[in-house]
Amino acid sequence: MEAIKRPAPAKINLALDILGLRPDGYHEMRMVMQTVSLCDTVTLAEGEKGFSLDTDGDFLPAGGKTLEQRAVEAFFQELGRPCPPLAVSLKKQIPAYAGLGGGSADVAALLRLLRERYAPELPTEDLERIGLTVGSDMPFCVRGGTALAEGRGEVLSDLPPLPPCWILLCKPDFDIPTAELFARVRGRVFQNRPDIDGMMGALEAGSLEGVAKRLYNVFEEVLPEEMRQEVQGIKTVMLRCGAMGAAMSGSGPAVFGIFRTGEEAAPALESLRKWYVRSFAAQPVSWLDNL
Ligand code: C5P
Question: How far apart are CA 64 and CA 165, in angstroms?
């Protein structure tokens, strides 16, 4: 079979709220998610034996099955067919462990490639459900666009697209495991909460300002102090350089800022690049099926 490939776009959380701990140990979330144009590239080809994964990144966990292998197995189990030998390769651009959904984006793109090759009639909802066996933000990464995510993150409602803009992404040089950050949330009463209904109203009205002034992520409040200050520092650089709003994405530590145009984003990108090599300019992606 000929190799097929697909871009795997990152996601940001325009707003992230945690409503409480659920009986199943996960947290009840309410988030506004957005796909952005910073992409990895995933290639699917016939393998020689079993499953192989090759990457130019340095993030593969030692031992155990990768998320990719688990997704492949779940996909063929759904189809009721044995897994053929497959070789997957990842070309990474999205920083790992950043809160930008890099790992999930790759798995989501892989699921779409598997569908294209083996089950073109499989509905996207089924792919989302298969994705959920691998991670809570997988269903959104499969669907893409702009969406409200509730439950563990898997209950999705499509929202009107974010108006055209530029989004700067900046990943500081530390990372915090997602589970550890959730553990810091336990028993905590947040001082501030995002105005998610207001943000959805702004999306409905097509108001970029209305969205940008409501960017907020409750995880910022539970970061260890030094990390919180660094995240705050990046937000301050973005805001001083003209960002309409800035926040941390997901469980961090990547920070994003929204700018109206590429020209308006350029000074902030230049300043951030002096300190952070992992600084990128991106735009919203609203329609995954066109990628
Ligand atoms: O679902 P996923 O494997 O991505 O989640 C990683 C970890 O984050 C979980 O083991 C859990 O500790 C935490 N989590 C949570 N509530 C969610 C999503 C994730 O507590 N809604």
Answer: 40
